[in-house]
Design brief:
This protein is α/β, with parallel strands linked by helices. The chain has 2 domains: 3-147, Rossmann fold (3-Layer(aba) Sandwich), CATH 3.40.50.720; 148-310 and 336-363, Dihydrodipicolinate Reductase, domain 2. It contains 12 helices and 15 strands. It has helices at 3-8, 32-43, 58-67, 77-82, 101-111, 125-137, 152-162, 181-186, 195-198, 203-219, 313-331, 339-358; strands at residues 23-28, 48-55, 73-76, 91-94, 114-117, 142-144, 169-179, 223-231, 244-251, 256-262, 264-275, 278-283, 293-298, 304-307, 362-363. Strands 14-13-12-11-7-10-9-8-15 form a 9-stranded mixed sheet. Strands 3-2-1-4-5-6 form a 6-stranded parallel sheet, with helices on both faces. A hairpin with a 4-residue loop joins strand 9 (244-251) and strand 10.
């Protein structure tokens, strides 16, 4: 098979077996991500519908309810926890600040509802362990919301690596950066720079987790140790250690992943896997910049790049994620990035922050 043929075999919904059905969602947390990305993605999905919204204020919940034909109920957080309208939804999407994930997953488990929880799973390893335990004790499906794992380009990259298209993987290089400083300078309550809400830090917790988890997925391997350096120079980031961060994670076979994350840098995302016989790159990636392309370089052959033609990239990735979750829940089969998978990233994140603080290599427990 030629390099062109290998790359052209794009994977689209290789996971789908569901033919019909609808999973009704309660959206927990009505920030911009839920309103501008999650709810529109569900509206474009094949197997999902938003029927309940949950917010800190009854007025906002009611307003969002009235703006969408499918939404039947608008609840406050307390009403959701107390079990209101459980007949109106089958699953919940948790998109609150990190440190508030646990209480709503616990409530969903009490109500017997499946959960799609945003990443990182919680603000600390200990709270993430309690979250996963609540889902396990409640015998509910729990998925960590890694939208890159259902992105067709990322899935194709994983297949190509498995098929030996670049030989043996040696190294991963990935970065995700954006400029958040203007926002946090105007609104110092932004939860991403509040350690009580965000967890260990700002940039690696929120952005670095993307290359970290994508590397785990495409390599099908778990990191065993981390090294890192971080700095925060701007006043807006004075309460967190990582306005900018560089970190290296090691795998048992010697493969490494070198990553950069910053909340105060040019909007940019790139992800490459270098092997003994070639290199695979997706660029841009993570931040919905288009056109997203997948490039395979190997031997003396000319580099080949595929542009899938997707232009509503974030909406597409979110729709794929929601439909994947519905496919698994409605068919009552196991979910790929489950709670234990998200918990392992929490352990890696803690090791990365510990490594930066201590200035030494730290094992990932």
């Amino acid at each position: 098979m030629t390099i062109e043929q290998e790359l052209a075999q794009q994977t689209a919904r290789d996971w789908q077996e569901l033919e019909a059905g609808t999973l009704r969602f309660a959206m927990i947390g009505l920030g911009w991500w839920t309103l501008e990305e999650a709810i529109p993605a569900v509206e474009q999905s094949d197997f999902c519908e938003t029927t309940v919204v949950v917010s800190g204020g009854a007025e906002k919940a009611a307003r969002v309810r009235d703006e969408h034909e499918s939404i039947e109920r608008g609840l406050t957080y307390d009403e959701f926890v107390d079990g209101a309208a459980t007949e109106a939804y089958d699953a919940v999407y948790v998109c609150t600040p990190n440190a508030l994930h646990k209480e709503y997953v616990e409530a969903a488990a009490e109500h017997g509802k499946a959960v799609l929880c945003e990443k990182p799973l919680e603000a600390s390893v200990e709270r993430a362990e309690e979250l996963v335990a609540a889902a396990r004790d409640g015998d509910i499906p729990l998925m960590t919301a890694y939208r890159m794992q259902t992105d067709p380009d990322v899935r194709r990259m994983r297949e190509l690596i498995r098929d030996g298209a670049i030989g043996e993987p040696l190294a991963v290089e990935g970065h995700m950066t954006q400029t958040m400083v203007e926002v946090v300078s105007e609104d110092t309550s932004n939860w991403r720079v509040d350690p009580d809400m965000a967890g260990y830090g700002a940039s690696v917790m929120d952005l670095g987790i993307y290359p970290l988890n994508t590397a785990r997925f495409v390599l099908d391997a778990e990191p065993v140790a981390a090294q890192a350096s971080m700095r925060s120079d701007s006043q807006a980031f004075s309460d967190v250690p990582d306005e900018a961060a560089n970190f290296l994670v090691e795998y048992a076979d010697g493969t490494t992943a070198s990553c950069i994350a910053s909340q105060n840098a040019k909007l940019s995302g790139r992800f490459s896997v270098i092997g003994t016989e070639g290199e695979l790159t997706i660029e841009p990636i993570f931040l919905a910049q288009t056109p997203q392309t997948l490039t395979l370089r190997r031997g003396e052959e000319q580099s080949i790049t595929v542009d899938t033609g997707r232009r509503d990239l974030m909406g597409h990735e979110m729709t794929e994620e929601f439909d994947y979750f519905a496919d698994r829940v409605l068919r009552e089969v196991s979910i790929g990035p489950d709670g234990e998978h998200g918990l392992q990233d929490m352990r890696a994140l803690k090791a990365i922050y510990d490594a930066a603080e201590r200035g030494e290599r730290v094992a990932i427990e």
